[in-house]
Structures are given as structure tokens and as C-alpha cells.
Amino acid sequence: MRNLMSLSTAACIALLAGSPAALAEVGHNPANTIQLEAGHPDSFQNFAPELAKMRERIAPVNTEFGLHVSEIESGLFFVSDQIYQSAFLVTEDGVVVFDAPPSIGERLRAAIEMAAPGVPITHLIMTHGHSDHNGGGFAFADLPDLKIIAAGDVATSLENAPLRGVLQPNQTFEDALKLNIGGVPIELQTTNYHAENIDTMIYLPEQKFLMAVDTITPGEVPFMNFGATSNPGAYFGSFEIFLAYDFKHFLSGHASVLGTREDVIATRDYAWDVRDTVAGMMPSFLDRFMTGMQAVEFQNGNLGYRHAIESVRDECAVQIIDRWQGELSVVDLWADSHCETTVIHFITH
User: Fold this and answer.
1) Are residues 315 and 191 in the same domain?
2) Rounded to an integer, what is the distance from CA 47 to the centroid of its chain?
3) What is the pTM of this model?
4) What is the tally of structural domains in the chain?
5) Which end of the chain has fewer beta carbons closer than 10 Å to its terminal beta carbon, N or C?
6) Are residues 19 and 56 in the same domain?
């Protein structure tokens, strides 16, 4: 990201008026872009490759319909198309599905039939109402007795603003719900770390399985803006909630690696490092703002404010990349977004 202080005062002032000279000095490319041209300063080739230790964990696609399907505990199956994740549980009463991403779509039903031929699908439990994780519900719409379970706030949101492919829940709960399906206990607990209304954690105590979607990406730093969270403060606090559970498997909804307790701890440490790094810089925010304002001769407060945000973000990103580049993959790709999200959070809180 270009720093305002790298520009002359004349260029900053000219930029406000759209001067061609100023545009030539700062360049035409927007911030935070990746170019596919090999020799470009923002070329993808300037980013580090994914760490070998992460790539070794990628679950292979092992079915004829392009999915990874594996039985991680007795009757509990993990499914991934290497972009999204789902799971299903085969019980004596039927099959329970945990989320239905549209990228997996009808292939999820094929995977269930392959694993449990002839066993009816009785339940679909939704972690939240976003279409990218439950827009594949259309593949189950023909099951007349299907119980579609979600938090009450999710049901209300979908009733007011239906999303393509996402089925309307017909069984709702507030705060928490304990189920016993085919002799298998399933615990649902609401919290908030990602969605704009509410998230639901799914816990299977006998299988030591915890599902909390859009939280971590095992082996990697989280997706941009901490998994595109709508609530960074709650996101930072979510890790202790997760770690209070006794779990071995952690399904986070994205990519092809099934997480572990160690992955949650690593992501917690990373996220908290970003949080604490930005917190240590925020006392200098007003000084950074004034430096930007002086550079533009107090003619544009937005430029001065953006300079302050970017200077904290960029210093944070340099430190975070240096500390984490050998520990988690793609830190150089997403660290700036994590730092910027945290800066905005501290400004508003």
C-alpha cells in the first residue's frame, strides 16, 4: 500500500483535483490487488507458496463424483469438495446432515447413499443461514418429513429475506438444544462469531466433534477479515468458547482439511497476536492522522484518516508476516486484511 508520506504535498493536493500528474505519481492500480502478470510489482509470484506441512494434510478427493468422503468416527462422515465442508451422521433412526453447501449440492445425497444405502435422511441441522453453507438445501427439498433445525433468529431472517436454495427451518430453538437421534446425543449452542444475527455450534460429545463454521482454516491463517466476520470482537472471544469443549475433530466449513484442537489453538494465538499488535499501535493513531493531514495541508480529512488506518495496518502486517510466515500458510495474503479489520474494530470500540 502506498503511504501518503511517499508523495509530495503538491501531488497530494493535485490528487484531490484528479490531476494527471498526480495519477502518474501514485499509479492507477487500486490498493490490495493481485496481478497475474509475471513481472508486475503486485504479481501473484511475489506471494509465498502454501506451506508443505499444510498441503500434506489436504484430504484427497476419493469418490467418482468429486468429493472427499471419510468416516472419521463410527457413523460420522466428513465431506469436502476442497472448497466447502459438510458432515453427516448415520444413526439407527436415520441420517443427520450438518450444513448443505451449494458447491457440494446433490453430490451430498449421493455420498450419503454410498455410505448408508437405503437409510432415510431425517434431519438437516444448519449452523447459520448463509447461502454459501446451506444453499444446497434444495437437494433435500423433496423429503417431506425432513426436520430442518436452526436457531430462531436464522428462521426469522430467512422468512423475511429468503435465500436461494436455503430451506426454511421447521424446528427452531433459542440459545441451546439437546437432541438424541438414534441413540446419539447432539448438542446445539448459539453464539456469535461470524454471522450478522447468530451462529450455532454443533457438538457430538461421544465422537468428540465440534463444528463451528467460518472460524478457522486449518493449517492456514483465516480467510480475509477473519473469515469475513461481522463481529471481530466476538470472533476474538470465540476461541475460549471452542476450547471449553472436549473435542478431537473441528469442522470449520472451508477448504479440505479437517481441523484439530491444535489448529484452534494456533489460530487463536495468531488472531490474538494481530489484536494485540494493533492495540499497541492505536495510541499513536491521532499522531498518524495529523501527519497525513499536514501532508495534504488540511485540505482533505478523508485522506488523512485513510493514511492513519493504512499506516497502522501496514506496520501490523509486516510484524505479523514476519512472526507467522513459517507457522501458518497464506499469512502474506491475508495479514493486511486482518490488521485492517482490527484497526476498524478498535476505532469503533
Assistant:
1) no
2) 20
3) 0.89
4) 2
5) C
6) no
Is 68 in the same domain as 189?
Answer: yes
Query: Quick one: 39 and 61 in the same domain?
Result: no
Give the dihedral sign, CA 222/227/228/232.
Answer: negative
Cell of 70: 471419510
**235 domain residue, yes or no:** yes
**3-state SS of 1-15?**
CCCHHHCCHHHHHHH
Q: Is 52 left (phi over 0), alpha (psi -120 to 50) or beta?
A: alpha
Contacts of 261 by beta carbon, 8 Å cutoff, 6+ apart = 243, 247, 248, 250
Q: Are both 146 and 233 inside the same structural domain?
A: yes
Domain assignment present for residue 265? The answer is no
Shared-domain flag, residues 93 and 205: yes
Q: Give pLDDT tens digits along the chain (349 positions).
A: 334 333 333 344 333 333 333 333 333 334 468 889 988 888 889 899 999 999 999 999 987 789 999 999 999 999 999 999 999 999 999 999 999 999 999 999 999 999 999 999 999 999 999 999 999 999 999 999 999 999 999 999 999 999 999 999 999 999 999 999 999 999 999 999 999 889 999 999 999 999 999 999 999 999 999 999 999 999 999 999 999 999 999 999 999 999 999 999 999 999 999 999 999 999 999 999 999 999 999 999 999 999 999 999 999 999 999 999 999 999 999 999 999 999 999 999 9
Cα 22 to Cα 6: distance, rounded to the nearest angstrom: 12
